[in-house]
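Same chain as my last thread, 138 residues:
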Amino acid sequence: MKKILVLFILVGIISSCGTDFNKPYSDTPTSGKVNMAGDETLEPLMDAMSDTFMGLYQYATLSMKYKSENDCFQDLINDSVKVILSTRKLNQNETEYFKSHQLIPVTTKIAVDAIALIINRENFDSRLSIAHLKSILE
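reply #2:
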């Protein structure tokens, strides 16, 4: 019994020789390198996102490219990037292209536009029309 145990231990030691356990796995959700493209208007959001992600996952590298929205979608179709950040959904032609190649792109809504109005407590006006708001912003 001891001989079998010693044999397993030796096989384990020999098989682990030359293996760098500190070397990260590649192409996992939290390690490896991913090429991304994003609309130029989203650059501050993408920079914050990539800095945070790479700070959390030391074996992950995000390569960011900032382009026009149409160029981002073209890069996705040409397979030069794996992820894009855009302010719009896929159009009909893009959807048909991916369906014809039996690919299902995953979309995730990460933000919406909004306006917050902060008023003084002493202001008793509880109604503000869209027209009035537009006149204030113009």
